[in-house]
Design brief:
- It is a single chain.
- The chain has about 400 residues and is mainly alpha-helical.
- The chain has three domains: about 90 residues, Orthogonal Bundle (DNA polymerase, domain 1), CATH 1.10.150; about 100 residues, no CATH class; about 100 residues, no CATH class.
- It is built from 16 helices and five strands.
- A hairpin with a 6-residue loop joins strand 4 and strand 5.
- Helix 1 packs antiparallel against helix 2, helix 6 runs antiparallel to helix 7 and helix 6 packs across helix 11.
């Protein structure tokens, strides 16, 4: 009877990737977990994790905290990756896993730009496509990847709405489509359609579809409805090994362009593309919209996450009058400094005088426990606290 050789054992990182995909974690989570497991194995001289335990995990995390001086959030990410490895991949449930303490994360105020600063940064974006994309992030509060992953079918000009599919936490939500961006978006879609038509003529493979929809709807990946709103100029390999195809613009490209724009605008703040989302939320609260509406637009599961922006409103500027001003005889401002002249780029200011404010369609009155009590003189927020992408 012939002897059948057993298949070679699966490599550790392949087992890790397989379990992550089985649980439908995001590609970013997969990349992060693979990075930390690889670093953990290399730190201990290429020993297999099954030969190690709690002491080795503690020493690796201690090295990250003391020698590498990583932040608390990075520390917790590395710990989560190692616990996932031992529990979900290696199938171990040992006492030391419950004894490892997670580092404490102190809340950080987000970086927020004023209306003038936002206008300056958007103007400094030299590429017209990136300028439109920056305006879209600020005008809708989308996260960077949520904006890049927009597809043609997600933009509804009739309802003036944008559907965000599988945002953070795999949640869908609807945000407004700014009226001022309707025509620029139509022009962007026309340019994207030319790219799509060229791909179809050249026989390029269709775009990536989520959750095996390509098997259920074989021709959906080739359809215009599923094409990217912001397609990449060149073809690239699929990160999960599905061949050469057209992807959306890479996030690093806009991050680099945005950094150059911040420097060109003369800003001395650690602003990133996510800062536009923070500014969107803060400016809506300044304009008088209730916090529940802002929570829904941002896609926060808990209103306490959105409440961080009310702390921003209560600090700096005219929120609290310094005793030094009284000592020096500086007269207090009698009213908020509302802008009356149009901003650059043909946009109207997001903050209007109280007499001109109009509520958003479908918004609710603020709930009593979450009503935002703003000071009599609303300042334009301008803070340099460390930014965080947790919001």
């Amino acid at each position: 009877m012939p002897i059948i050789d057993a298949p070679p054992p699966e490599r550790l990182l392949d087992q890790l990737r397989g379990q992550i995909r089985y649980l439908h974690y995001s590609i970013r989570t997969e990349e992060a977990y693979v990075h930390w497991v690889r670093a953990y194995v290399r730190f201990h001289g290429l020993r297999h994790p099954i030969e190690m335990g709690g002491a080795e995990v503690q020493s690796f995390l201690a090295w990250l905290a003391t020698e590498r001086q990583v932040s608390a959030s990075t520390h917790k990410q590395a710990l989560s990756a190692l616990l996932f490895l031992y529990q979900q991949v290696l199938g171990q449930q040992l006492p030391w896993m419950d004894q490892i303490t997670r580092p404490r994360s102190d809340p950080r105020l987000p970086v927020v730009l004023s209306h003038e600063e936002v206008a300056a940064v958007l103007t400094a974006l030299s590429d017209a496509d990136w300028r439109l994309f920056g305006q879209l992030l600020y005008g809708t509060g989308l996260r960077l990847l949520e904006g890049l992953r927009l597809r043609v079918k997600d933009i509804d000009f009739e309802r003036r709405a944008i559907v965000v599919r599988e945002g953070k936490g795999s949640k869908d939500r609807v945000v407004m489509l700014p009226q001022s961006l309707e025509q620029p978006l139509r022009r962007q879609l026309a340019a994207a359609h030319a790219v799509w038509a060229a791909d179809r003529a050249a026989g390029v493979a269709g775009v990536q579809l989520p959750h095996a929809l390509a098997r259920k709807y074989p021709r959906a990946s080739l359809s215009w409805a599923w094409f990217w709103v912001f397609p990449q100029a060149s073809l690239s390999n699929d990160p999960r090994g599905e061949g050469l195809r057209r992807h959306h613009q890479p996030d690093q490209a806009f991050q680099r362009a945005f950094k150059r724009a911040v420097l060109a605008a003369g800003l001395h703040k650690p602003a990133t593309p996510h800062t536009l989302r923070h500014s969107f939320a803060t400016h809506l609260l300044l304009a008088g919209y209730d916090i529940r509406t802002v929570q829904e637009l941002l896609g926060h599961a808990d209103v306490s996450t959105t409440m961080i922006y009310t702390h921003v409103l209560r600090l700096g500027g005219g929120a609290v009058r310094s005793p030094m001003d009284s000592l020096m005889g500086v007269a207090p401002e009698s009213a908020a400094r509302w802008r009356t002249e149009p901003l650059p780029l043909g946009r109207r200011p997001a903050v209007a005088p109280p007499s001109l404010r109009k509520p958003l369609l479908g918004t609710r009155e603020p709930d009593a426990p979450y009503a935002v009590n703003l000071p009599c003189c609303l300042p334009t927020p301008s803070f340099t606290a460390a930014a965080t992408s947790a919001f």
